[in-house]
C-alpha cells in the first residue's frame, strides 16, 4: 500500500515536469535562422577550401622553383588560334545511310584471287538459276 501511495505522488510530480518541458521545447528554430546558419556554414567551408588551395599552390610553386619547372598553361577555349584541333561534326542521318560500303567491297574484290571470285559468282548464280527453273515448271492458277 505504501508503494502505491509513493507511486502516485512521484507520478504526479513527473507529469508536471513533462508538461512544462513540452511547453518550452515546442519552439524550434525558424526557417530564416536555419537558412542563415546554412549560409554561414557554406561561407566557412568556402574560406577553408580557398586557404587550402592557396597552401597547395604555394607548395607547387616551391616545387617548380626547386626543380626548374614551368607552370602549365591551360588551353583557352575562347582563343580561336589555339593549337587544339576542332572536334568533328556528328554525321547526319543521310550520311549514315549513304552507300559508303561499296568502295570497300570493290577493294575487297581486288584482293581476292580471280579463282575465288569465279567460285563465289557461281555459288550465287546456281541457286538463282534453280529458283527460276522451278518457277517456269510450276505455274500457279
UniProtKB/TrEMBL annotation:
<dbReference type="GO" id="GO:0019905">
    <property type="term" value="F:syntaxin binding"/>
</dbReference>
<keyword id="KW-0532">Neurotransmitter transport</keyword>
<dbReference type="Pfam" id="PF05835">
    <property type="entry name" value="Synaphin"/>
</dbReference>
<dbReference type="GO" id="GO:0046928">
    <property type="term" value="P:regulation of neurotransmitter secretion"/>
</dbReference>
<feature type="compositionally biased region" description="Basic and acidic residues">
    <location>
        <begin position="42"/>
        <end position="75"/>
    </location>
</feature>
<feature type="region of interest" description="Disordered">
    <location>
        <begin position="42"/>
        <end position="113"/>
    </location>
</feature>
<keyword id="KW-0268">Exocytosis</keyword>
<dbReference type="GO" id="GO:0016079">
    <property type="term" value="P:synaptic vesicle exocytosis"/>
</dbReference>
<feature type="compositionally biased region" description="Polar residues">
    <location>
        <begin position="79"/>
        <end position="92"/>
    </location>
</feature>
<dbReference type="GO" id="GO:0043195">
    <property type="term" value="C:terminal bouton"/>
</dbReference>
<comment type="function">
    <text>Positively regulates a late step in synaptic vesicle exocytosis.</text>
</comment>
<comment type="similarity">
    <text>Belongs to the complexin/synaphin family.</text>
</comment>
<keyword id="KW-0813">Transport</keyword>
<dbReference type="InterPro" id="IPR008849">
    <property type="entry name" value="Synaphin"/>
</dbReference>
<protein>
    <recommendedName>
        <fullName>Complexin</fullName>
    </recommendedName>
</protein>
<dbReference type="GO" id="GO:0031201">
    <property type="term" value="C:SNARE complex"/>
</dbReference>
Amino acid at each position: 500500500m505504501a508503494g502505491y501511495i509513493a507511486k502516485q505522488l512521484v507520478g504526479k510530480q513527473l507529469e508536471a515536469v513533462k508538461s512544462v518541458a513540452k511547453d518550452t521545447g515546442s519552439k524550434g528554430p525558424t526557417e530564416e535562422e536555419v537558412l542563415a546558419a546554412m549560409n554561414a556554414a557554406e561561407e566557412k567551408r568556402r574560406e577553408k577550401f580557398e586557404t587550402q588551395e592557396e597552401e597547395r599552390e604555394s607548395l607547387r610553386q616551391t616545387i617548380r622553383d626547386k626543380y626548374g619547372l614551368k607552370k602549365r598553361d591551360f588551353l583557352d577555349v575562347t582563343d580561336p588560334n589555339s593549337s587544339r584541333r576542332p572536334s568533328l561534326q556528328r554525321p547526319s542521318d543521310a550520311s549514315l545511310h549513304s552507300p559508303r560500303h561499296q568502295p570497300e567491297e570493290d577493294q575487297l574484290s581486288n584482293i581476292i584471287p580471280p579463282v575465288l571470285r569465279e567460285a563465289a559468282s557461281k555459288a550465287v548464280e546456281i541457286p538463282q538459276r534453280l529458283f527460276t527453273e522451278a518457277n517456269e515448271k510450276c505455274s500457279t492458277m
